[in-house]
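G., the chain you wanted modeled:
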Amino acid sequence: MAELSTIARPYAEALFAAALDDKAGLDSWSALVSELAQIAGQDDVREALTDPRLNAAQRIDLFSGLVKSPLSDTARNFVSLLVENNRILLLPEIATQFEALKNQREGTALAQITSAFDLSDQQVAELVAGLEKKFGLKLKPAVTTDPALIGGVRVTVGDQVLDTSVQARLTRMRDALVA
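Predicted structure as tokens:
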């Protein structure tokens, strides 16, 4: 089976192109796509949408009824397309790719920052400022804590990883001693 990201890419790109032409704006579409992905990611919803007793129209009505935000004609058509092509469960991956396209257009990127300890807002701001110089992008930080790092931080921006954690240093020392 093809990788989910490969299957989701054309849908994300088509939705992004439609969102660019819509007067609602990218931020509005981003919020809607995120909401759709959260709904599609629920186990109960996934189970209901794959129920063979429901036809496509019933699945569309079921899914549309769960959406709290008002659905434009374009959004409703997109949901219909996904249901009819049995791709509605790809919405979480489509949302991820949509957000990546939005960030690319805005010249920004998501920075996954994992720290061994909780970071204050000032520490995050200083870290992001340094990282923005290094990567040459405006970064949106997403900070998590992982005590297994022992100390330091691990930053992931796109496919680049900057790992200054104690755990990574110990691993490199171990590898050097074994070699």
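Residues 4-103 form a domain with the Peroxidase; domain 1 fold (CATH 1.10.520.20).

Shout if anything looks off.
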